[in-house]
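Sanity check

After download, print the first record. It should look like this:
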Amino acid sequence: MDRINSGSLSVDDIVSVAWMFDIGKVVDISRYGGGRINETFLVQTLAGPGEKKDEHNYVLQKLHRIFSPLVLTDMDVITNRLEAAGLITPKLVRTLTGELGITLDGSCWRMLTYIPGMTCEKGITARMAKEAASLVGRFHNALYGLDYEFLHKIPGFHDIEAIMTGLDKTACAYRGTEKYSALFPLAERVLAEYQNMEKSLQKLPDRVIHGDLKLNNVRFDESGQEAVCLLDLDTLGRDKVVIDIGDAVRSWCGSSEDGEEGCKEEGSCFDLDIFQSMMEGYIPEAAFLSGDEKAAISEGVATVTLELSARFITDAFEETYFTLDRERYPSLYEQNRAKATAQMRFYDDFQKHRTRAEQFIAHYM
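Expected structure tokens:
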């Protein structure tokens, strides 16, 4: 078990944590996935005679400091609800003492069941988009009407007003610096676009949402054709359902988050064909969806894109939140500036296609 590039964590530390969960004999641990927030490891345990290997794989995560241990209780409630509705979902594995997770040195750890399949970072097809959006519709449907008060709430999460105010204050605090000269034009544009946009989302009902429907949080089967389940249930909570859909559109219908993949056609970063496939999959499954919510989907896309742009710019100034991709960027400043620029490129192209997108949604009104 010497393959872990563990950063500040030693291999022995991670192995010791894994042994605290009721999973049997650990035989291998390796880094897993490309998450930007939590630290994730694939844990392999000794399979018995005739047992499938996948049944003895688990996912160990050290949660980001923004998540308190209460998030595990929320996740346990939600995954039980999803399972009862017939949906596949990762489940928490309890510790040897029966707890949902453990807290060590202020960090919360959890062990999850492993769902066989694949995730996709980019290059989603229309068929995959329809399948995945259909799954999101079933996910929302299963949680519709759930009477549960979430224990864990991320301060300011999807609080667009607070995020924009925070960006403005942060930019002002760096006035006169090199960062200010480089970032302020972008920050100023994001703030202006948000100030001038229609804001009808406040009128919509709050529903239970996933909260982070980026593409790699959808688990597909091994063929990549069937959407199996949603991953990373840390951000569950109550908010406008079009925030969830808008975030999915932002992630699935564009190039990679920092524009690396490029665009489908010259000057274009919003894929209308993928968007239409998503709506074909999602809207018929989301039986609860009101006419007002359908009409607000495009506003949700624009809002979430501006929100994420603001978060990237804020962290480009502060360099304290997102995880640095050291293989591609020398600093969080460079990384987040690139990502914010790519998000605004997507925003501009979505606005060019917005009328056609809304016309397509109108077929379902």
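If your output differs, re-run the checksum step. Summary of this record's structure: The domain at 11-113 is CATH 3.30.200.20 (Phosphorylase Kinase; domain 1).
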